[in-house]
Structures are given as structure tokens and as C-alpha cells.
Amino acid sequence: MNISEIMVRMIAFSDQNHRDINHFMKVHSFAHTIGVLEQLDDQTQFILETAAIVHDIACPLCREKYGSTEGKYQEMEGMIIAREFLADTGMTQGEIDRVVYLVGHHHTLHSIDGADYQILIEADYLVNADEGGYSKDNIRNFGEMDFKTAAGKNLLHALYGI
After folding, report:
1. Which domain holds residue 101?
2. Is residue 147 a contact partner of residue 78, using CB atoms and an 8 Å limit?
């Protein structure tokens, strides 16, 4: 499957939850943009974009099971669901393993081990800051501490004046 096919499959998986669909589509758009501007190789870009599409795949289950979409629940449950979701996509086992790793760590800010991981963190934060109405201080602090890519920093500044 290509990125567009994975996107359509995830939209269907989301069972008409427009909030979830809009969220992962926005995260995907920022991840795509940052990855292109940071000149990722094709395989890393594909892994990044796939992870951006499925990063919150566990949210419906977490709402039902825990009454919360807290990051620790998303990471734990998301790894299992993402692996099943990607099993028949034609992706290699290595690609699936990396996407599953990213889904299982997309709220973990330490031990970031690759550009795909860093960009996913930045893209998700750009969207979460808007959707969550984060304060300028929160955005500024997160940007100073956790944004590493030039493209991500430029987007943060363009969106939030930080």
C-alpha cells in the first residue's frame, strides 16, 4: 500500500470520528512537510508519514477502556493495534517494526533516535497546541526544549509567533 491507501484505510478504521480523522490528517500534513523540507530519504519519509497517520490509532480503545487518551495508554495499546493494522499492507517487517516503535513512543520525549521520531513529535505538537489551546508560554518552552528541526522551528514560529 502507498501512503494514500493507508490514509483511506485509517479513515475507514476511524469509524466516522471526524475529530480523530482531522487530527491525524493534520499531523500527517505537518510531518510530510517537515520531512520533505528536512530532505529525508524516501524510506524514512514513508515510515514517518505512515506513523503520522496511525500514531493515535489506539485513541478509540483508550477512551472506552480507560476513559482517557493519556499518552501512556496510547503508546501501550497503540503498538498492538498498529502492528495488526499494518500487517497486510505489504510493508516490510522492518518498516512495520519502526512504525510500531514510533506509535509506541510518540509521547516520549527522551531517547529520540531518529529524524522520523523527532519530526513526528514536532508535527503532533504543532497540532496538539492548536487543538488544546496551549498557552504561549507552554508553546515557547516546548519549542525551545524539544523542537530540533529547522523546518519544525520555522512552522512553530509561523503558526504561533514563537
Report:
1. 3-160
2. no
SS3 56: coil
* pTM flag (> 0.90): yes
**CA–CA dist 88, 73 (Å, integer):** 25
Residues in the chain: 162
Domain count of the fold of the chain:
1
Local confidence pLDDT in tens for the 162 residues of the chain? 999 999 999 999 999 999 999 999 999 999 999 999 999 999 999 999 999 999 999 988 888 889 888 888 888 899 999 999 999 999 999 999 999 999 999 999 999 999 999 999 999 999 999 999 999 999 999 999 999 999 999 999 999 998
CATH number of the structural domain spanning residue 46 = 1.10.3210.10
